[in-house]
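S.,

Sequence below, as promised.
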Amino acid sequence: MKATQNNNNYGVRLVCMSDLHNIETNYNVPEGDILIVAGDICGIGNKAELKNFDDFLALQTHSLKLVVAGNHDWPFAHSTPSEARKLLKKRDLS
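The prediction came back faster than expected:
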């Protein structure tokens, strides 16, 4: 990962989000190096909401994306870790 330069200092910019609850794809997310989405991607927990989130995530330019499922994200709860990664198809996740 390449560090960004901010005010003549080098560092890593973290962008943290949570409780998106079926976010719209046009939501304005700050630029950064790492995007962390800490749970509650879905509102009611269906695969249509995951597709919407997948479209949103594909638009983000962060070098690294980390997604942690929350209590509303039922499709992940009923999956193994490898199956859960496949639920988001347009992603490059860690």
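The radius of gyration is 14 Å.

Coffee later?
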